[in-house]
Input
Amino acid sequence: MNQETKYYNAINQVPQIGPKRFQRLLDYFGSMEQAWQAGFLELEKAGLEKRIIEDFIAHRQKINPDQEMEKVTRENIEIIISNEAKYPKQLKEIYNHPAILYVRGSFQKSDELSLAVVGARKYSSYGKQVVSSLVSDLARTGITIVSGLALGIDALSHWTALKNNGRTIAVLGSGIDQKSIHPATNWNLSQEIISSGGMIVSEYPVGTFPLKHHFPNRNRLISGLSLGVLVIEASQKSGALITANYALEQNREVFSVPGNIFSSVSQGTNNLVKMGAKTATCADDILEELNLHSSVASQNKIKVDKEIIPDTIEEEKILNHLSNEPIHIDKLIKLCEMDASLVNSTLTLMEIKGKIKDLGGMNYVLSV
Output
């Protein structure tokens, strides 16, 4: 274990020591071990404010660097500090990048081709359909999908990447140890991400609760790890718009999926388009804008013309009335002139075969 890593982790237990103050300590002392052991006057010379020094010294008396590292090791967490070669290149380019990262999994060279996907926690059937289409296509090209593990579009994007054998990274606003993962309802998703070869990452130490002010900080990492941010459904006050704003500050591209002008979860995305965000209606819109077609040429091609073959007369009748526009089962029953129970059982079998998708509320679309 690198001694410096141990002291980076110890100092990171002090909430008031963020990226800027980490850098001041490093510039003055040259190492975090020396900073950890420094007295009041030396810390003041390093540029820390009096109240911060007092707080730092008070915390230092309660923190055992070796015991804190034992917690990290027990959780199978790796620490990456900003001066190490494996620290993600794109993240290091942003202003105020974290001095320390906690990761489960590992960064890969392919993660340089990453796209952040964020959106509403309460999404519509339209939002679900957009994720299914765009994120599936992007994941199949080899683009790494970055999001925040939150309920809604975030979690749906992670799951969609996994279902398409893609790579995905979850950025948390809490610790990444077993007990701190937030939200707890997505704990299984976090484990699926890791076991699939993806990763979860945070700048917060083991045992950190998901406090409200952590999430804007988390959002700057989501955009910072990515070439651009895709927003799929967002209200006017959605946290997804914070990520979009960070992306603009970090000189990243912002993409927005236009939506229904009468839908509250489309107000934020439609406003982004008005403000100059790139409109994204398919994966190609994003790949072309980011000049990624050549970069992903050796990866799997997007399958946009997948033909769906009916196995029975009943399936053929139903397929004749299905498209990418959602249609309710009641309308299908009328159009197909079939018994309701037969339509229902046929739809169930077709969904199992992967031919169609239920967007919720018994609204169906083709699975392409």
The chain has a mean pLDDT of 92. The chain has three domains: 3-104, 110-197+205-289, 313-366.
